[in-house]
Amino acid sequence: EAAGHPALVDHRSYKRQGIDKIPSVHLGPAASQMEKRGIRTDKGEVNRQIAADNKLLKEIKARITRLYNWSKAEAEKPEGQQPSMIDLWEAQQQLNAPRTRTGKIRALQESAALFSFLQANGIQSMQQLHEKIADMNSRYYDLRGKIVKAERRITTLTERGEMWEQYNQYKSIHKQLAKVKPEKREQFEQRHSRELILYDAAARYLKELKDSDEAITPKAWQLEINQLAAGKQTDTLAMKAMREDLKAVERLRKTAEQLSRQERDKSHDREPER
């Protein structure tokens, strides 16, 4: 909000707004009521997965942004003021020395993960670390684009499959209507109004699909969904692996900030009292 005026709501889709966020699936009245009663539905599961994906994407982007800005500022310092990676790694172990057995094991694992990350990427200086984070940023956008694109396509194909099932589920009712005598037609329509409405909606949806030169191929739709889901899972795992690398660098950043605070405190202590 600005100057007391509420912010405008953009009703365009995320895609049209240029936002790489996965849109949720419209539940519809039936699924919505079931979810409210605590009954998990297929559409509800899709939305829960979409929410988890969006949360992961947002979290990793925030981590990268913070580390990118920090490493850039550090890399721009005079060379003599930049801590080496090995110094930071050693300082991390000294500054974070837990006393419990569990804490020691975790600290050892974290130290090993950081060392592995630095060694695997040949990182010895702050400039090299900054370049790696910049590379991770580019990689993040590549993965995010693939994940978002796959999820959007899966959503589209899932809707098509549901409409195909809905069409076939109520097709027999529609056929029965054609055989009903005129004097009993209104009564039949009232008794089966819900089924007929759902059939008409599905039939209209599929007709519009055919009119736009899209083939009605339910088996092919499902096959594509399976392939997209497998590829998306691979990309999501790569994104999660990136998150672990970012966590390791964040521990390095924390150590650098601790050392910086200690140095400031020492400088302050050395200042003569006035």
UniProtKB/TrEMBL annotation:
A Pfam match: MobA_MobL
Region (Disordered), start-end ranges: 252-274
Entry keyword annotation includes Lyase: no
Domain MobA/MobL protein stretches: 2-37
Keywords: Conjugation
Top-level taxon of the source organism: Bacteria
Entry's family note: Belongs to the MobA/MobL family.
UniProt protein name: Conjugal transfer protein TraA
The organism of origin for this protein: Faecalibacterium prausnitzii
